[in-house]
## 1
Amino acid sequence: MVYRQADQLDFTIETTPPMPLPRRVLMVSPDHFDVEYVINPHMEGHVGQVDRALARRQWEALRDTYRTLGFEVHVLDGVPGLPDMVFCANQTLPFLRGDGGRGVVLSRMHAPQRRDEVPHLARFFEQQGYALVSIPDEVPGSFEGMGDALWHPGHALLWGGYGFRTDQAVYAWLARELGVRVVALHLTDPDFYHLDTCLSLLDAGTALYVPAAFDEAGRALLHRLIPNLIEVPEREARELLACNAHCPDGRHVLIQRGCTETVARLRAAGFEPIELDTGEFLKSGGSVFCMKLMFF
Ligand code: ARG
């Protein structure tokens, strides 16, 4: 079932089935990363402005941070002509069924410039023995994987953002196909075009969020289901994509450097922020969360 209003909620997080946290990280090397077109407001004015050598160092520092934290990092080569493929949160949604079956839903990218990225990720997951699931033709609209569809930490519950890159129709199909509840959140501000730019689920009861990115119904759903909602200052969210942070283990939070207030709030809530510079990738509208994909 897809939940769109707080008054529809007939469950709590504790009553949703458990699901382990994914332990493997996929990254796509940034050899061909660049800003070559504008498909989100963050990219404006940055075409041709990427420092490739610096981008590579920033990407390597992120990869090494996951390794230091004990995660296995798989690296796929980038592909010429696909400058956004480095944002590998977007081309698929990995899932783990209750019976242990692993698969990925293949995205239907909104921007034509990004459509050819999907088969490269599909091939990787096929080699890993994952079932590949395509959105059926009769389901209309686009879907951008873990840019918009986020697993609730430790639970088989999906948060689904829609409005810019993903169509809400996809969530009714996904809920049925995966047999999970989906909480659908309408995104209303183009600076926050993916759910992972305005909501960061840290652990089962805590999340960072930007209130202005959602409508009234969305804010009510978030408040009802997440006891510790940490508000991110709008400047840090818009300019530094503070909500594109990633907490892989319920404790460490990898986040763009300079999000001073967000970092203070994270520490106060008992988390350990790790500040990284993803400045070259911010020029494309992405940071930590979208530069990797967690899989099971
Ligand atoms: N330039 C990319 C795009 O606009 C950035 C994607 C960032 N990914 C994310 N999950 N927020 O598609």
## 2
Amino acid sequence: MKVNRKGFLDIPVDPELDLFKEIDRLKKEKNAVLLAHYYQDADIQDVADFIGDSLGLAQEAARTKADIIVFAGVHFMAETAKILNPDKKVLLPDLNAGCSLADSAPAPLFRVFKEKYPDHLVISYINCSAEIKALSDIICTSSNAQKIIESLPQDQKIIFAPDKNLGAYLKKKTGRDMVLWNGACMVHEIFSVQKIMELKARNPKAKFIAHPECEEAILRMADFIGSTTALLKFSQTDPAMEFIVGTESGILHQMKLASPEKLFIPGPPETNCACNDCPHMKLNTLEKLYLCMAYETPEIRMEKPLLDAARKPIDRMLEISKRYGL
Ligand code: 13P
Ligand code: SF4
């Protein structure tokens, strides 16, 4: 079965089919594992074998014994799973599921930028293309970035790419003067300071929790800052009963499941759009997921030299994370 030019299987699905059952059946039949990011739709999270943040998903991909990895997330995540499993089939329901942050760092421009700092080590956030990974020394995620930076000698010069917001946050946290690439995530840049202030005034007991991809002005208002997994854990363990959540709205599903007695309010964007929904993540649907498992396409394919070059900095990340028990 060929993927159409759109990058996904565009064939009708029988509306009578119980897709949850069918996806479970296909998982068993094909010895496939379904990995999903917290930003996926609730029904996709419900059918997944493992739900996690970018670090958790990479670690799960590294340890899986399944023959097929089905990635309900975006392209750079599925690509990372492929880099870690060059001999396995890695499927992504819609190849168009990209990432504005990854797109903000085109490899040819980054190569020229890097050449200006020959004595710098490159730490890249996992939200980047395999080509950028191949140009990097260590990959990090929002869960382990601080520890990775702190594991390096104080006098080590660093380029941090591609997220300028996460980079600025890490500069503050670690006191390291890193050179930053000027990239950002479209979802985390739309939160409104004014509207969050108004929400806090209306819900004085609510805590504002935010992802470090948000802009500095937003992070300054936060009671807690962390990766999606850290935000989820905080919402479970903190005694507060109300939370305003400054990240993509998909995470609210797991927060509500874990703490049904608590109230979770999505962080408000500047306009009345649903722009704290990631349009890339939301390209994956239950129907596309079912079709991609049934026909084993679209598949992530990469040339061996790129696979090998991109693997080294990911292995380095996994090794440092293990050392620190992350
Ligand atoms: P984490 O999964 O590391 O929390 O990052 C969030 C994100 O934006 C993924 O695209
Ligand atoms: Fe990329 Fe932002 Fe979407 Fe995450 S939320 S996939 S960083 S665009």
## 3
Amino acid sequence: METESLIDKIKALKRQKQVSIFAHYYQPIEIQKLANYIGDSLGLAKIAREQKDSKYIILAGVHFMAETASILNQNKVILSPNFEAGCPLASFIDPKIINEFKMKYPNSPLIVYVNTTAETKANSDVCCTSSNSLKVIENVAKDWKTDTILFGPDKNLANFVRNRTSLNIITVPEKGNCPIHNFLSIKDIEREKKNHPGASILVHPESPLEVQNEADFIGSTSQMLQYTKDNPNPNGFIVGTEIGLIEHLRWKNPEQSYYPLNKYAICKNMKKINLKNLFETLDACGTPSQSKYEIRVSEESANLAIVPLERMLQYS
Ligand code: 13P
């Protein structure tokens, strides 16, 4: 099918079947343009929880985002166009690893990044995202009356919070990382600074500490977007994250210039959602083939995992 006619069909099916499409900023730009809402992990979790109007939600993002939506809104049918869109960071931690650390630190609460499976969340105390990690950690330390916090699985996000608090942060496990952000380097910073003198440098907290240390601003995808609006720079912005955000910025705020810190920062998993599988998911809504796209979290896991997620939303 031609791209244009596929887009028209998606728009028509969306209306006809009362489907909301929620997309992450790392989605291909043509998917973002079809979404009812585009956000960071926290924004997607909140909107999914509050969604009442539409019959179905299609979560255009990686698997943990759809799973989180399903845990937070258990009465809603949440669909994913491609179950193979995983998050490599999520596989750095599991209940077995958690158990090992819990044995060593039995009185310390465990905060896990939302980039984790439902089972990992079900075995944790509180969740956080890149936009609220510091706030969550400080509130947990106060409420649990402790200065030692277990935090996982991203070592770079752990370093980001460690540099901004006096708390003792134990990374669980030691070396978890997002391969897309972890490969950003000082060489990238040096090259792009030379190519774009005077540009502001924005990086995601999943980037290595030495890269964070060179940034003018460190934040989640939507925080970076907000920064470009609040702090316009005629010399532009060097953006250290997945290129989907840069495509979003060029689409929504074309009057400024955006340069990738590394043009190869492309998350293959995020790009596993495309017009074809989005159309197929919409087409299946309300038919027996819907089950092929439906996110199912066991009741037991969902009831346990919702606790740390709700705590995170209270602290945010
Ligand atoms: P944000 O919450 O900043 O959108 O990050 C999501 C993510 O998965 C980064 O790799």
